[in-house]
Amino acid sequence: MTTQAPTTGLGVFALSIDCADPAPLAEFWGKVLDRPVSPGPTPENVVVEATDPANGPLLFFNKVPEAKAGKNRLHLDLLTENYDTERERLRGLGAKALNEISFPGARWTTFADPEGNEFDLLTMQAK
């Protein structure tokens, strides 16, 4: 993994996600984002790679002893032009749809991943 710090300001290197079982959760997110899971995972930590800067930061999955409690304070918003196809693909990977919203200009579904972490799938619609 090669990284280079930005020459000015700050850059987002990774998002760390606490979970009960890192390997299957990393596998789920690797499939969602079409990104590889790093070789050499441990029972405590697994990384989903960022294959280029345009597809976002690394995702670190870290085993913690406590269960998820309450709503996420930070979650991913995934943007697509193929909303219906991606919504069904996410369901097929094991995501659970929690809420669907549509209004002029946008449509989104809030999902939960296999450990209950919320994320949104969005599409912008022509007005």
Quick rundown:
The protein has 127 residues and is an alpha/beta fold.
Description of the molecule:
The protein folds into 2 domains: 13-66, Signal recognition particle alu RNA binding heterodimer, srp9/1, CATH 3.30.720.120; 74-127, 2,3-Dihydroxybiphenyl 1,2-Dioxygenase, domain 1 (Roll), CATH 3.10.180.10. It is an alpha/beta fold and 127 residues long. 19% of the residues are buried. It is globular. The chain is 18% helix and 32% strand. The strands form 2 sheets. Strands 4-7-6-5 form a 4-stranded mixed beta sheet, with helices on one face. Strand 5 (96-103) and strand 6 form a beta hairpin.
Provide the gyration radius in Å.
Answer: 16 Å
Largest sheet: 4 strands, mixed
Q: What strand order characterises the main sheet? A: 4-7-6-5
Q: State the low-pLDDT regions, or none.
A: none
Characteristic terms for this protein:
2 helices; 2,3-Dihydroxybiphenyl 1,2-Dioxygenase, domain 1; three-stranded mixed β-sheet; four-stranded mixed β-sheet; 127 residues; 2 domains; Signal recognition particle alu RNA binding heterodimer, srp9/1; alpha/beta
SSE map:
Blueprint: E1 14-19, H1 22-33, E2 45-48, E3 58-63, E4 77-79, H2 83-93, E5 96-103, E6 106-112, E7 118-124
Parallel strand pairs: 1-3, 4-7
Antiparallel strand pairs: 2-3, 5-6, 6-7
